[in-house]
Amino acid sequence: MRRKGVLVDRIQLLGLTGDELERFVTEDLKQSRFRAGQIGGWLARGADIPEMTNLSAALREQLARIAVANPVRIARSIQSRIDETEKYLYALPDGNLIEGVLMRYHHGDTLCVSTQVGCRMGCAFCASTLEGRVRNLTAGELLGQVVAVNRHIQSADPQRRVHNIVLMGSGEPLDNYDNVVKFLRLVNDPKGLNISLRNISLSTCGLVRRMYDFAREGLPVTLSLSLHAPNDEIRRRIMPVANAYSYEEVLTACKYYVEQTGRRVIFEYALIKDLNSEVGHAEELARRLRGMRCHVNLIPLNDVKERKLEAPDRRTVETFLKRLELKHISATVRREMGADIEGACGQLRRKAMLNPESLECVSKMPEVHFRRL
Ligand code: SAH
């Protein structure tokens, strides 16, 4: 199928497991099995099909007709002038756009990966969900983000590579369960990128049934739970998912995750002015979390222009943190990164869709079409 000059139904080689790649090579390409090893090696290094020089020119041509190595292309990268954060706008084969952020921490380069185009969870403070979910990303598009960024940063410094991954970009990872689980196994493959699952965090708004499934997958990734409230009443005001699963059910699922994986859970708590950031809320939160193996990540809300919610002042944030600590709850305030480059979830993509000309090189790409709002 062709759309705007781009093949959208080509096989995404990065999304295949070793066995699937072998089957594709022997059955579809009618080649011998060792070719799969050769292609797999190239893919792990981020090579494109024309660069696979130990394949014959004819085979490369045949391959390029039916397959694409990496379906994700960096359409635009923006470097923060404040810190070393870099933001990416990626183009997908069907013209959709997603985004990602690379943050430099002392424990290595950390990439924030998107899991869906848009999101259908409807959280009141989040830009990613404003137009709902467009579609799930494939496993190849998930892995493709990491491979594309590796290639991008290695062009300047061959020693650099994505070391940690947070599934905290646009989308709800547990609403795209099968592709996300496949991605986690692929990215951890010793023959592939070989990124340790312990260096990966998955953030969910709390799809409880899927949290139990995920706990049983045997994947020791860190679970981040977007809690954002000290009780059901406040949570329901900002997160529609709280109408489906109660606070207690979410915490019980988190405890199960801790039991199954031995890993502590991280609670994300966006501090919102006049909503969830009073001392009484910190006390209530501490009571609810008492005795759990957990850590609370406080995030002063990133203002989203379309919403009327804003962050509280600094003193309120500090008081909230101190009160949690006083109650023996481990907590930190998340350092703001990339504040000058639309660092928050969904903001860059939204800017590109509303005003394509604002992103000069994107508007020059003929195959990218902008979804109308
Ligand atoms: N759907 C997943 C992951 C994507 S969002 C989830 O809900 O966890 C990643 C994190 O950013 C979540 O904790 C989300 O609640 C938070 N977030 C979204 N918009 C935000 C904003 N404007 N300010 C602060 N945090 C925000």
Fold and architecture overview:
The structure is a single chain. The protein has two domains: 69 residues, DNA polymerase, domain 1; 285 residues, Aldolase class I (TIM Barrel), CATH 3.20.20.70. The protein is 35% helix and 20% strand. The protein has 13 helices and 16 strands. The N terminus and C terminus are likely disordered. The structure holds S-adenosyl-L-homocysteine. S-adenosyl-L-homocysteine binds next to strand 12 and strand 14.
What's the number of structural domains? 2
Dominant shape: elongated
Side by side, the strands of the main sheet go 5-6-7-8-11-12-13-14-15-16
What string gives the helices and strands in order? EEEHHHEEEEEEEHEHEHEHHHEHEHEHH
Broad CATH class of the largest domain: Alpha Beta
Structural class: alpha/beta
Strand content: 15-25%
Features:
373 residues; two-stranded antiparallel ribbon; ten-stranded mixed beta sheet; 2 domains; 13 helices; binds S-adenosyl-L-homocysteine; alpha/beta; TIM Barrel; disordered C terminus; DNA polymerase, domain 1; 16 strands
